[in-house]
Amino acid sequence: MLCTHNTNFDIPMKYKHIFEPLDLGFTTLKNRILMGSMHTGLEEEKNGFEKIAHYYAERAKGGVGLIVTGGIAPSIQGWTGPFSARMTTKKHARKHKLITDAVHKEGGKICMQILHAGRYGYHPFIVAPSKIKSPITPFKPFKLKQSGIKRTIHDFVNCAKLSQEAGYDGVEIMGSEGYLINEFIAKRTNKRTDNYGGDYENRMRLPIELIKQTREAVGKEFIIIYRLSMLDLVEKGSSWEEVVQLAKEIENAGATIINTGIGWHEARIPTIATSVPRAAFTWVTQKMKQEVSIPLITSNRINMPETAEKVLAEGHADMISMARPFLADPEWVNKAKSEKEDEINTCIGCNQACLDHVFLQKVASCLVNPRACHETELNYYKTDKKKKIAIVGAGPAGMSVAAIAGQRGHKVTLFDADKEIGGQFNIAKQIPGKEEFYETIRYFKKQLELHNVIVKLNRRVAVDDLINGNFDEIIIATGIKPRMPKIEGIEHSKVLNYLDVLKFKKPVGKRVAVIGAGGIGFDVSEYLAHEGESTSQNIDAWLKEWGIDKSLKSRSGIEGVVSEIEPSPREIFMFKRSKGKFGAKLGKTTGWIHRSTLKKKKVQFINEVQYTKIDDEGLHYTQNKEQKLLKIDNVIICAGQTPFKELVTPLEEKGIKVHVIGGADIAAELDAKRAINQGCRLAAEL
Ligand code: FAD
Ligand code: NAP
Ligand code: SF4
Predict the structure, then answer these.
(1) Distance (Å, rounded) from C-alpha 373 to C-alpha 53?
(2) Is the CB of 373 under 6 A from ligand 3?
(3) How many domains does the chain have?
(4) Does residue 122 carry a catalytic annotation?
(5) Ligand 1 atom closest to 671 (CA)
(6) Contact 402, 412 (CB under 8 A)
(7) Residue of 59, 276, 347 with the most ligand 3 atoms within 8 Å of its CB, for mutation
């Protein structure tokens, strides 16, 4: 339902706060949704400008109120990595015209983020207020001299003016996350004794001068967003009183909007991972609302319209920033506007194809939407040759190929032996902190419906069903079988595999050995170490678990706070045969969270073992040539997987060509990112 009350914009009643325009005086944003800054890697790619222009234009077309680009350095010293994107010359500005024109053509608005990486830069020319190395980068920074600070301010101002020439509607000055500006503000990284160090007046001088001079240079009718670190989450960060003082100064200096930054990159508290509850930090922005009068943007783990609407309706902020949800679904805003939220491809907060890619210097994408950042090469055009297609297996691989083949106009039948679609995602969604996986199944269910895919559940397909079905194309997406290692006593009644625990809910005793420390070993341990409601569903419990002080009396929100951990209902021992750190192969940006959670639950990690046998006494193994026995109630096998492709060979022997995707194709190192990517790419070609 739409209301056209007193404005030129249609406002859906259900999300009336989201769709209330925001008047900035000299310009109006059509809604309260900002696409937050994200580096994609396209910035540095060959023909990257053309690709990134398409990428932003799709999001503008999708209805977002304002886009903020990935960080652009104002100088070589400010690079995040060697040869990363910068805007220092008119030539750079001319290239960006491609982006601003594309966005404006779609009716959107776009600001360019100016990011000086400071000591987080991954190159030898990095600078910082003091010569202190960050714990997450290998280079020690040079200390900026007074002349260097002046030059840095000039670089920011020059960059802002060039962005204006490039046609941007404004800039976002990145003052949070532990980058250069933040490094000046915090005692942790600023040990200077000149007028940019020492007391707080001095430490906040840089951002204030930056904003004042930028405003002077760009005039009144240009958006300046300042991204303020409202909660540092590191020792010796800012106190709340200091953050408020800075916010007021920023307002006076001429900023149009303040955006919320939560946590430095080196903080050991998760801020955007899937296990962080939705909207877990909007209370911080809400506190700031009482202190300043310019609009405030809040962020972090807001991914669905209901959450965004609630945050705005409760007055926590004036705008919502979402970044990854726009990789997952460029149409997010338009779908919310037409109240088709069940059609939104929800960001599940996994980081697997976005942040993990960026950290590995790969172009970003999205696990649930492989088209993200690949808009110029992966497209799902309507077919002019309608085919009858059978897909066996409705896991991530099967669901994605079915949905897109259906969308392209093929006649698709999707079979699954189970009573519901989703495959292993139905298991993954039960892990505490992985509840978002429900959303992916909901999304595909709706897509299958919309594109008239015939779904046949409780249907174990046999070779003859496929031969007799007269299909033009047969796709095998039957997934995997859990691997059962050859250990003496593997048939013992104490032994369960991960499906017995997660799917068939077999009872598990109080002392447990988990064999295998891959993603599933970690997830099973997490499942067994929790009881009752997952903290990812309860903001206050989650904040306590990670030692965050909601009253903000503690400096940085954490100093002196003791975490309150619910003890594990079981003693858990995780085993692996190989050397090295547990969880080293988990996601680059999330592995440490899983390790930290299990350590807090006192899970014991035991590596470099060989399994001898399992019997009534327990698990016998050798470590350092010493024979050991662990008395346990159960052994849970999480030792990887092998392809489940029984249908393939008999069909091929009869000369029938099949496509094999997902786990059925290659089980080693299979994840949903590969399964969905393979499904989507096959569907695009059928
Ligand atoms: P599956 O999901 O295994 O689906 C195969 C489907 O085929 C099943 O539904 C099965 O019933 C059906 N089937 C098989 N044979 C037949 C037949 N003859 N007739 C009809 N139907 C048949 N991946 C990630 O990327 N990130 C994660 O965080 C993550 N967490 C996980 C947590 C857990 C606990 C588990 C178990 C897995 C997790 N995964 C994760 C892995 C991810 O779920 C798999 O990589 C993905 O599901 C593989 O997709 P698939 O479509 O190939 O196979
Ligand atoms: P995996 O990551 O390959 O791990 C398998 C584990 O089993 C390893 O720790 C291995 O350790 C052990 N192992 C292998 N063969 C064994 C044998 N014969 N005997 C005893 N131990 C053996 O596989 P997985 O945990 O099953 O996960 C499957 C896929 O799902 C993964 O590729 C992963 O990407 C995905 N997943 C991802 C996440 C995530 O959070 N991103 C979560 C869950 C699953 P040793 O060789 O050292 O003994
Ligand atoms: Fe969200 Fe995962 Fe996609 Fe990143 S890869 S945008 S976290 S769903």
Answers:
(1) 10
(2) no
(3) 3
(4) no
(5) 45
(6) yes
(7) 347
Which pLDDT does position 411 carry in this prediction?
97
Burial of 91 (0-12, 13-18, 19+ CB in 10 A): exposed
Does residue 85 sit within a domain?
Answer: yes
Residue 28: which residues within 8 A CB-CB, separation 6 or more? 21, 22
pLDDT digits (tens, 9 = 90+) for 168-221: 999 999 999 999 999 999 999 999 999 999 999 999 999 999 999 999 999 999
pLDDT confidence band for 4 (50 / 70 / 90): very low
- How much is the mean pLDDT over the chain? 95
Q: Are residues 512 and 597 in the same domain?
A: yes
CB 401 within 8 A of CB 685: no
Query: Are 41 and 70 in a shared domain?
Result: yes
Residue 63 lies in a domain: yes
Atom of ligand 3 nearest to the CA of 324: 6
Ligand that comes closest to the CA of residue 482: 2
Q: Are 321 and 298 in contact (CB under 8 A)?
A: yes
Residue 460 structural domain: 388-481+642-685
Same domain? For 398 and 452 the reply is: yes
Of 55, 120, 168, 179, which is the active-site residue?
Answer: 179
Q: Are residues 613 and 655 in the same domain?
A: no
Does pLDDT of 43 surpass 90?
A: no
For CA atoms 644, 647, 651, 653, the dihedral sign is positive
Q: How far apart are CA 24 and CA 16, in angstroms?
A: 19
Per-residue pLDDT reduced to its tens digit, 230-279: 999 999 999 999 999 999 999 999 999 999 999 999 999 999 999 999 99
Measured distance CA(603)–CA(685) in Å, rounded: 46
Q: 138: exposed, middle or buried (C-beta count within 10 Å: 0-12, 13-18, 19+)?
A: exposed
Say whether 392 sits in a helix, a strand or coil: strand
Residue nearest to atom 31 of ligand 1 (CA): 428
Q: Which residues does residue 451 pair with via DSSP β-bridges, in sequence order? A: none
Under 8 Å CB-to-CB from 468, ≥6 apart: which residues?
Answer: none
Tell me the ligand closest to 370's alpha carbon. Answer: 3
Q: Which two tokens stand for residue 680?
A: 């989507």
Stated pTM of the model: 0.95
Beta strands 495-497 and 511-515, pairing class: unpaired
| CA-nearest residue, atom 6 of ligand 1 | 393
Q: What is the dihedral of CA 575, 577, 583, 584, to 10 degrees?
A: 160
> What does residue 501 show for φ and ψ, rounded to 5 degrees?
-80, -50
33 lines ligand 1 (CB under 6 A): no
Same structural domain, 394 and 453? yes
Residue 47 token pair: 């023909």
In the reported structure, the alpha carbon of residue 670 is separated from the centroid of ligand 2 by a whole-number distance in angstroms of 10
Q: Is the distance from CB of 614 to CB of 491 less than 8 angstroms?
A: no
- Do residues 80 and 207 both lie within one domain? yes
pLDDT at residue 5 is higher than 80: no
Instruction: Enter the DSSP assignment of 567.
Output: P
H helix intervals, 374-502: 396-407, 425-428, 437-450, 463-468, 498-502
CATH of the domain at 108: 3.20.20.70
Query: Could you report the per-residue pLDDT of 278-335, keeping only the tens digit for each?
Result: 999 999 999 999 999 999 999 999 999 999 999 999 999 999 999 999 999 999 999 9
Q: In whole angstroms, what is the distance from residue 581 CA to residue 598 CA?
A: 13
Instruction: Examine residue 561 and state whether it is found in any structural domain, yes or no.
Output: no
